[in-house]
């Protein structure tokens, strides 16, 4: 962030009066340009007990498997965002079965939020951002080829909760692993 | 948003290639300026069974009572943000007792997230953004003077859950009331 998006003047990075941390500030028009974490919303979609995963056709993590998820857009609710992302990435219509996991990823300024969901008619297909979409039995999940740690944790929690038939909302923080610190793929 | 924050060129509002909605796009350097909802994180802080509220010293809703809450910052986890806001607005140190409410407010592009929390040493005082801080018995809550609908809903849920001694995460959407549509105070 170099220039003011309101008046085009160069920005200064400084602590504004009355605040306690550095912000991008426009000395010409006075605008403070706040930056905040973003939300990734997604689904854990089921059909006949199997889990729908998407193989990514985009970076980061091209070729790896993920739950359908993406950036929440303006004007959406959380579950609308999760349902839209499932439609876009897996061409699947789902009904939300409620909030399931909430993970903070402070090193990438993101919060990942997943809902449990059920396919409405069992139909799915790769969207433009997916190479492949497939239903996986519990024993078939490609653990070594998952795209993101929040996807792994959501799937692990789901299988654990399923085994005792009790689903509770999970909340946590996910920091980069030592390997990821060296080789910064996101999340 | 009028000018590119990377190169200062005027922005165009259009649908970028491969996308499905309008964005602010820089025709000179090619940057797409995404805008996303922001997270408000806060606490429902308890001390000896009473609830700590803050009377706002800032707009919007100057003079109305709120749970301590504010915008999540870069580099934070959700509970760090909620704890920091409680420190800033009520000069109180709290221990989180877990995620409690999650509300989408699509009309203001916000998600409000509250944690149940307990004061660590019972100390509190108004921070710079509060006129007053006070512990309220259940029967004393100033329902007609609450600042935001998400605060009201969180308090209502808490009292209901408390009466049956079982606390569960609540998720929902809050749209503006007809009155608020006419007189747009946030949330």
Write a concise keyword list for the protein shown above.
homodimer; 187 residues; alpha+beta; Ubiquitin Ligase Nedd4, Chain: W; Nucleoside Triphosphate Pyrophosphohydrolase; 2 domains; eight-stranded mixed β-sheet; three-stranded antiparallel β-sheet; 3 helices; elongated; disordered C terminus
Explained architecture:
Two copies of one chain form a homodimer. The C terminus of chain A is likely disordered. In chain A, the strands form two sheets. In chain A, strands 4, 5, 6, 7, 8, 9, 10 and 11 form an eight-stranded mixed sheet that branches. In chain A, strands 1-2-3 form a three-stranded antiparallel sheet, with no helix packed on it. Chain A has two domains: 35 residues, Ubiquitin Ligase Nedd4, Chain: W (Single Sheet), CATH 2.20.70; 137 residues, Nucleoside Triphosphate Pyrophosphohydrolase. Chain A has 187 residues and is of the alpha+beta class. Chain A contains three helices and eleven strands; from the N terminus they run βββββββαβββαβα. Chains A and B meet through helix 1 and strand 8 of A and helix 1 and strand 8 of B.
